[in-house]
UniProtKB/TrEMBL annotation:
<feature type="domain" description="Band 7">
    <location>
        <begin position="57"/>
        <end position="223"/>
    </location>
</feature>
<feature type="transmembrane region" description="Helical">
    <location>
        <begin position="435"/>
        <end position="459"/>
    </location>
</feature>
<feature type="transmembrane region" description="Helical">
    <location>
        <begin position="37"/>
        <end position="55"/>
    </location>
</feature>
<protein>
    <recommendedName>
        <fullName>Band 7 domain-containing protein</fullName>
    </recommendedName>
</protein>
<keyword id="KW-0812">Transmembrane</keyword>
<keyword id="KW-1133">Transmembrane helix</keyword>
<dbReference type="GO" id="GO:0015485">
    <property type="term" value="F:cholesterol binding"/>
</dbReference>
<dbReference type="GO" id="GO:0005789">
    <property type="term" value="C:endoplasmic reticulum membrane"/>
</dbReference>
<comment type="similarity">
    <text>Belongs to the band 7/mec-2 family.</text>
</comment>
<keyword id="KW-0325">Glycoprotein</keyword>
<keyword id="KW-0256">Endoplasmic reticulum</keyword>
<keyword id="KW-0735">Signal-anchor</keyword>
<feature type="region of interest" description="Disordered">
    <location>
        <begin position="403"/>
        <end position="422"/>
    </location>
</feature>
<dbReference type="InterPro" id="IPR033294">
    <property type="entry name" value="Erlin1/2"/>
</dbReference>
<dbReference type="Pfam" id="PF01145">
    <property type="entry name" value="Band_7"/>
</dbReference>
<keyword id="KW-0472">Membrane</keyword>
<dbReference type="GO" id="GO:0031625">
    <property type="term" value="F:ubiquitin protein ligase binding"/>
</dbReference>
Amino acid sequence: MDSDAEKGVTSPLTSAAAVRQRLNNRLNAQSWDINKLIVPALVGVAITAAIIYILSISIHRVDEGFVAVYYRGGALVKEVTGPGLHMRLPIITTYKSIQITPQTDELVNVPCGTSGGVIITFGRIEVVNILKQDAVHDVVKSYTVDYDKPLIHNKVHHEINQFCSRHTIQEVYIDLFDTIDENLKTALQKELHTLAPGLEVQAVRVTKPIIPEQIRKNYEQMEAEKTMLLVAMQRQKVVEKEAETERKRALIEAEKESQVADIHNKRKIAEKEREQSINKIANNMLLEKEKASVDAAKYKIETESAAFQKILTPEYLELQRIKAIEKNNKIYYGDKIPTAFLMTNDSPKNENNSPRKSEPKALEINPFQDILNNGQSVGTPLFGTELPLFSDYYCMNREQGTPLTTTRSERPSTPIPYGDGYGHRQRDDAARGHFIKLIVCVILTVGLLIFAAVIFASIHQVQEGFVAVYYRGGALVNSVNGPGYHLKLPGITTHKLIQVTPQTDELLNVPCGTSGGVIITFGRIEVVNILRKDAVHDIVKNYTVDYDKPLIYNKVHHEINQFCSRHTIQEVYIDLFDKIDENLKTALQKELSELAPGLEVQAVRVTKPKIPEQIRENYELMEAEKTKLLVATQRQRVVEKEAETERKRALIEAEKESQVADIRNKQKISEKEREQSINKIANTILLEKEKAEADAALYKSEKESIAYQKLLTPQYLELKRIEAIEKNNKIFYGDKIPTAFLSPIGKTIEAAKSK
C-alpha cells in the first residue's frame, strides 16, 4: 500500500511536524544572521581598542622645561627630544624626563662635626642648578638620570663636613656662617666644571644649623647678657652722676692720700737713709772682722807651711810608711802588683786565715732533643676526622599532567534552509532594517554627545587680572591669552592661569639666627610683586607656573638668614629693624632683574620678630633705669663735703707720724755708731790672739824637726821596719818585685833625696 505522502494526502500529524520544523529552521536562520552582524562589530572594536592601546603606549608627552632621553634594550641612545608629543617603540624603548630649567635640590638634615667634636645639623641646604640641553646626553650617560645624587648631594655632604671639621662651632654657627653658601657654591662649581660640563650651580642657600640644646641656650644666655649692656647704657646717666660724685670724692681722697703719701715718703726716705747708714756701719764692722780673720788665717798657714817644710824629711816619711805597714796583717808581693800592697780584709779566707781560691765552674749545657728526623719535619695531623663528602645529588621525579582535551560542536556543513514559502522572509528583512536603523541612531546620538562634550571642554574662561598659558603635549606654546573666552584642543592642550595684577606672597614664621647665635622668628613677611604680561611666557618657561617659590619664597628665607647672621639681636630688633624691608626689597629686585626680568617687587612688609623672653624683659628693664638719675644728683653734694673733711684730718695725722719717725731714726743711727766702735776693738783683740797661737805652733814644729833629724838614723828606721814586718802573720813573695817598697833603707832614703 502506498504511503500518504505518495498519494498526496497529508495527515494532521505530518502537517504539524512540518510546521514545527519550518519554525525551527526560521529561528536558526535569524540567529545566524544576527551573529553575522555582531561578530564583525566585536572584531572591529577589538582591533580598534588594540590600535588605541598601542598608540597610547607609543605616544608620550614631554612637559615644558624638560627633555626626554631614551633607552633601547637598556642602552642609552643619542636622541634627546624637547617638550611635546613623541612616538617610541613600545616595550622596546623606554624614556626618562630630564629637567633643563633651574631646579632646586634640597638636602634635609645634613649632619657634620666641628673641629671641637660637636655634631650639628643643617636643617635644609638648597642648591639651585640648571643642566644645559646640549649636555644632557653626556651627563646622563656618565651619571644616569639621577645625576644630582653623585654630583650634588654627595659633594654637598663632603664639603659641609670638610668645612665643619676645619672650624669651631663658634665659627660655623656665627663668625663664618654668612660665607658658607658662597664657599659651597664655589667648590661645587669647580668640581662640576671638571666632572660634568654643562651643569651649573646658580645659587646655594643654607639655613642656620641646629646645634645642641645646651649650647643654644648658652648663646641665648650670652645674648641676654649683652642686652644687659643696653640696660647699663640707660643706667649710664645714673652712673655718670654717681661716678662724678665718686670722682670728686676720689679726687679729694687722692689729694689727701697724695699729701699723706708725700709725708710718709719723706719719712720712709729718712728711715731708708737711717737704715743705709746703719747698714754701712754694720758692713764696715763685718769687713773689719773678716779682714782680721783672714789676716790671722794667712799668718797661721804661712807659719804651718814653714814648719811642715822643716819636719817632712825623707826619714820622717819613711817612718810614717813603716807605721802604716804595722796596721796591715797581710802583704802581697808579685810582679803584677806594682803599687797595690794593701789588701782588703773582705776577701774570702780558709780556715787557716789564708785567701781561698775559687775554682771556675764548668758551663753546664742541657742537651737538646732532636726536632728533625732524617732531615725532614715530622708533622702531626691536627684533626683525625675527614669532612663528609656529598657524592649524589638527585631530585624526585614528579608526575606529568595529562593535557585536557576539549571538544566543541561543529556547525552543520549543510546550509539551513531559510524561508518557509509562507511570507515570513519579508518580515525578517523588515526587522533587520529596523535593527540597523536603531544602531545608526545610537551611533549618531553618541557622536553628538561626544561632539558637545568636546566643544564644552575646548571652551575655557580667563578671569580679569589673569592671562592663560597653554601646554600642548606638555610643551609650552607661544600664545598667551588675556581675559575672556577662548578655545583649545581638549585632551591635547591644557592651560594655566597666571596673575598679572599685584599679588602678595606671604611667608609665615621665618626663622633666622643672629650673629650672637640667638634664634628669632619673623611671624609674617609679605612681598608685594607684579608680573608683567609680556614677561609671562619667558618666566613660566624657565620657572613653571609656580615661579614665586624659587624666585621669591626661597630668596626671602635666604636674605633674611644672611641679614640676621651679619647683625646682632640689638641691631635686628631695634637699631636696623626699620631698614630690613627696604634692604630685602633691594636684594630681591636685584636678583629678579638678572634671573626673571619682568617680575617686579613693589613692597616688602616685615613684622617685629619674636625674641627670647629673657631678652625682652631686659629691654623693659632698660626703661626703668632712667628714673634713677635724680637720686644720684642730690647725693653728689653730700659726698663732696664728707671727703673734704676726711682729707684735712688725714693730713694732720700724717704730719704727726712723720715728725715722730725723724726723732726715732736719729736715735737708731747713734746706737749703731757706738756698736761699730765696740766691734773694732774686738777685732783687734782677735787678730793679736791668732798671731800668738800661730807663733807658738811654729816654734813647736821647729823644735820637733831638730829632734827628728837626730833620732831618725838609718839604723833606727831599719829597726822599725823589722818590727813592722814581725807584726804581719802572712807575707806573699813573687819572682819579680820591681817596685817592692821594702828595700834596704839606705837606698830608699837616697832615692827620695835624689828626687
